[in-house]
Amino acid sequence: FEGYQACVDWPSCAFYEELLTHYPQAKVILSLRDPDKWFDSASETIFKGLDSSFGPSNLQGQMARKLIVENTFGGRHMDREHAKAVFTAHNDAVKRTVPANRLLVFEASMGWQPLCDFLEVPVPAQDYPRTNSTDEFKQRMQAHKKT
């Protein structure tokens, strides 16, 4: 990871313990969402893309299906209650595992201040962004299918 200062989302979140061992001073930001809203969004975006857009010749898609669908959700990613339980268990495990001084439990509604305080950087003048909505993600997936 030379030259990089951060990693986000899958696949890195699946290996947070290994990353913490390798980078003992790393800080972790656990971005929380309501489990029902998370599932609604994931099932319309990430999970739908995993089920439909990656053919057998797409290595990135194969890796994502293996890591997310099989390894993380045991093939039951579209089972709402099971997926929410896995999501909640992951969040709880991160809270138990990551030392408190290296963990920020964050919700986007909190805005810049706690995030910037944790990262020891100044708060930007612009408003905290609201991006990556379900609709925006779907548009990116459509554009990806065309390429």
UniProtKB/TrEMBL annotation:
- List the transmembrane segments: none
Q: Name one Pfam family in it.
A: Sulfotransfer_4
Q: Tell me which domain of life the UniProt entry assigns to the organism this sequence originates from.
A: Bacteria
Give the InterPro entries listed for this entry. P-loop_NTPase, Sulfotransfer_4
- Identify this protein by name: Sulfotransferase family protein
